[in-house]
Design brief:
This is ABATE domain-containing protein. The protein has 186 residues and is mainly α. 50% of the residues lie in helices and 10% in strands.
Length: 186
């Protein structure tokens, strides 16, 4: 799982590219911890098929809205209503507690609820979709076959790939191969 899209909601969208990344509760647990929505040691015993379905549904709605924004088209009103409804819910409560070494660490208070975690991701999507500065940085990867979206926070805002190490490197290798083949045909 990668967490380099620039927003939690975009990292959720990325869990479907190039294959389903949230197939079960275990993968959702990994994503929730990796995205920073829950501290690493948070017990997530109740994460099941219903949570997976809810996060996949939110992912689909966020992707629909982000793609519409990239295309300059009107948002899907049903998707927007569902994201807004989730975003209106209370986010998870956090508190600082002492760990075994006596350091303050972040912990979710009052238990872990699916609705609260969905609210946090949906609120991030609403913030993205209503922030002109972030919308101006929204990009679709130009990598061959890649469908990821990301925020281009590079210095010159000329980033073309979701990851220079992955899609960018594949493009550079393909360009090199084309040059070698062209040079060999002369």
């Amino acid at each position: 799982m990668r967490f380099d899209s620039g927003r939690v909601c975009l990292d959720l969208v990325a869990t479907f590219t190039p294959h389903e990344g949230i197939r079960d509760g275990d993968e959702l647990r990994l994503w929730l911890a990796g995205a920073g929505l829950v501290p690493d040691r948070t017990p997530l015993a109740r994460v099941g098929a219903d949570w997976v379905a809810a996060f996949r549904a939110l992912r689909g709605d966020v992707e629909t809205l982000v793609r519409a924004e990239l295309l300059g088209s009107d948002p899907d009103e049903d998707a927007l209503a569902r994201v807004n409804a989730l975003a209106a819910g209370p986010p998870p409560g956090v508190c600082a507690v002492r760990d075994q070494e006596g350091h303050l660490v972040r912990e979710l208070c009052g238990g872990v609820e699916c609705g609260a975690l969905l609210a946090a991701v949906a609120r991030d999507a609403v913030e993205l979709l209503t922030d002109p500065g972030d919308l101006a940085l929204l990009r679709a990867c130009e990598g061959d076959g890649c469908t990821r979206v990301y925020l281009d926070t590079s210095r010159g805002h000329r980033r073309r790939w979701c990851s220079s190490e992955l899609c960018g490197n594949r493009e550079r290798v393909a360009r090199h191969r084309r040059r070698v083949l062209a040079a060999g045909s002369h």
